[in-house]
Amino acid sequence: MKKIVLGLAAAIAIGGAALWQFQGSAQAAPNVAFTDLQGQTVTTQDLRGKVVLVKFWATSCVTCIAQMPDTIRHYQDLKSRGFDTIGVAMQYDPPNYVKNYTETRQLPFPVVIDAQGKLAQAFGDVRLTPTAFLIDKQGRIIKRYLGNYDEQAFLATVEKALAS
To answer: What is the pLDDT of residues 66-107, one digit of tens each?
Structure first.
């Protein structure tokens, strides 16, 4: 029993430390290259000076699909102020599904297929969708979102990052 309690306490401490790492202090976004469905490549270094949402998603993820209209609207409303979005389709998502969804929904932001899972790995071994990272103008991760999120709090964080 004592071992179980100690193990549980250790797991909670590790989980809390990982959560604090992303939410309590900004850390540098990984230096990666995103190649979208049109073959255009951009790196995290290229995105400096913008506030960027990197959103890991899948066509099979009900929450991802439900969030997509808001993701599109936020991108369209804020892009002229220096906000960008990159949709990263998970390794397990069939490329033809991703391409079909992107084309039929006319996603206005770059969509990348993480075919080898290297982007998910670079961002802390992302496994659950949706997982999104908000990156500030200096290239630091300022917020990590997992699953559903409070839209007003998200927009307030974006506004603060755009103003800085």
So the answer is: 999 999 999 999 999 999 999 999 999 999 999 999 999 999
pTM of the predicted structure, to 2 decimals: 0.84
Nearby residues of 43 by Cβ (< 8 Å), 6 or more positions away? 31, 32, 33, 34
Which residues on neighbouring strands pair with residue 62, listed in sequence order?
none
The interaxial angle of helices 151-163 and 62-78, nearest 10 deg, is 40
Q: Are 102 and 37 in contact (CB under 8 A)?
A: yes
Least confident of 1-15, 34-48, 128-142: 1-15
Pairing state of beta strands 131-135 and 140-146? antiparallel
